[in-house]
Design brief:
The chain is mostly helical. It has 20 helices and no strands.
């Protein structure tokens, strides 16, 4: 096991760049979900903490998340093609810079349409970064260390969400708890931090040698090439796993902050807390639920290393799908105290989030170098298009009940059907790649 992590200095540099790029990608992506209960009422000129404000926050969180999922998918396909045309290094630089600027601009919006435009801009970069980073790492490290390298990159994802939760708590729950009208703007400004990483990527990374060799020996990549007879089965296999994973993760994770806020608001009302104390409690419970979900996800991701090495890709996906389905049923279907329900989100994270630890190396394994970023980006992001209805449906139904925690749990319980059915279908749809060399 020790030899699995015997990377060279440059391999560590590439893994670190992919790790930080993906962590900040998720960090910028999820900042909105934490500030939505505050910024949406302000932009709609609604009274804070009113039933109308909670209903609007639930509805627009789901609606904007669904819009962004489609935009992220577009960015994933667009930048995947670009990376196969102009190279991994320059494309990675562009995606990181784009999502950082788009998120920072959200701090200056004065209405909801402006917020949506800025989030769509950021989402193009957010969607593009993952496939490029995964392809670059897979093409850089030795064959025997591709699995742990991919898992290490993906481990940044839960840490990125935890960082978003921590930044939101520190800014909105501590430093500016007295000023909820503007605190969310400072949270968005924190999204500019990845600009420094973009400069470092541009300065220190080299272009992928595998991509350079493939580019000189083949025609320009085409999206339609993913459905040529030789690659069609691989594309469908990657898309199947990614669609179920993204649908399950987003339908749950997009509403973890909303669930924490609803549980805290209900507890604050029972305890008779004042507005500022209630806001601090909401920020704290949002962070608590998010940390539970993401720490569970981190543990689930790291488990992908031994699972992939000893039992292969197909059994691994079956295990993650079943764990996600069972954890969702327990967390949202069993009567639990508020803190226990937030803690149980760790089990949901282990299944729904842990699955992604395998996608970082599984998707690049399916495609040759000339279409690797395009294929990985397409499969990972087509899931976002098909998953876009999930957050919208959860937000719309939750809004009809003023965003109560009971309504959220009742709706999220149904999400467990997706991974349950996927576990049954995996043997027929998923292509096994264990032991295969990375195709050139």
């Amino acid at each position: 096991m020790r030899n699995l992590f015997a990377f060279t200095r440059y391999e560590w540099l590439v893994i670190g760049a992919g790790w930080a790029g993906w962590g900040f990608d998720v960090f910028d992506a999820l900042l909105f979900n934490f500030v939505a209960p505050s910024c949406i009422p302000v932009l709609l000129h609604l009274s804070a903490d009113s039933p109308a404000a909670r209903a609007a926050a639930a509805f627009w969180t789901g609606t904007i998340t669904s819009v962004l999922l489609v935009s992220w998918a577009a960015g994933g396909v667009l930048f995947g093609l670009l990376a196969d045309r102009i190279g991994r290094k320059r494309s990675l630089f562009l995606t990181i810079g784009l999502y950082a600027l788009g998120t920072g601009l959200c701090a200056a919006v004065v209405n909801l349409p402006q917020l949506i435009v800025c989030r769509v801009l950021a989402s193009l970069g957010i969607g593009g970064e993952w496939g490029i980073g995964a392809a670059l790492i897979a093409e850089t490290v030795a064959e025997s260390r591709r699995v742990p390298a991919g898992v290490l990159m993906q481990s940044a994802s839960p840490l990125g969400v935890m960082l978003a939760a921590g930044i939101n708590y520190q800014i909105a729950g501590v430093w500016f708890a007295h000023d909820p009208q503007h605190a969310w703007r400072y949270v968005f400004l924190a999204g500019l931090a990845p600009l420094l990483l973009a400069v470092l990527v541009r300065t220190f990374l080299h272009e992928s040698e595998r991509w350079t060799a493939a580019r000189s020996a083949s025609a320009a990549p085409r999206l339609a090439g993913l459905f040529d007879p030789a690659l069609r089965r691989a594309t469908l296999s990657g898309a199947f796993v990614a669609v179920i994973g993204v649908l399950t993760w987003w339908a749950c994770n997009a509403f973890v902050p909303q669930l924490g806020a609803a549980l805290a608001a209900e507890q604050a009302a029972r305890d008779g807390l004042g507005p500022q104390a209630a806001r601090t409690l909401i920020a704290a419970w949002q962070a608590y639920g998010s940390n539970a979900f993401n720490l569970g996800g981190l543990a689930g991701m790291l488990a992908a290393i031994p699972l992939s090495l000893y039992c292969g890709r197909r059994p691994l996906f079956v295990a993650y799908f079943l764990l996600a389905a069972l954890a969702i049923g327990f967390t949202f279907g069993v009567p639990l105290a508020p803190h226990a329900r937030l803690l149980a989100l760790g089990l949901v994270g282990a299944g729904a989030f842990g699955l992604f630890g395998a996608l970082t190396y599984y998707l690049p394994e399916l495609f040759p170098a000339r279409l690797r970023a395009t294929g990985a980006g397409f499969c990972y992001n087509i899931g976002r298009v098909l998953a876009a209805a999930g957050p919208f449906a959860v937000g719309m139904v939750s809004a009809a009940t003023n965003g109560s925690s009971a309504a959220l749990c009742a709706i999220l319980l149904w999400v467990g059907l997706a991974p349950l059915l996927a576990a049954l279908a995996t043997p027929a749809f998923v292509l096994e790649t264990r032991g295969r060399a990375l195709p050139d």
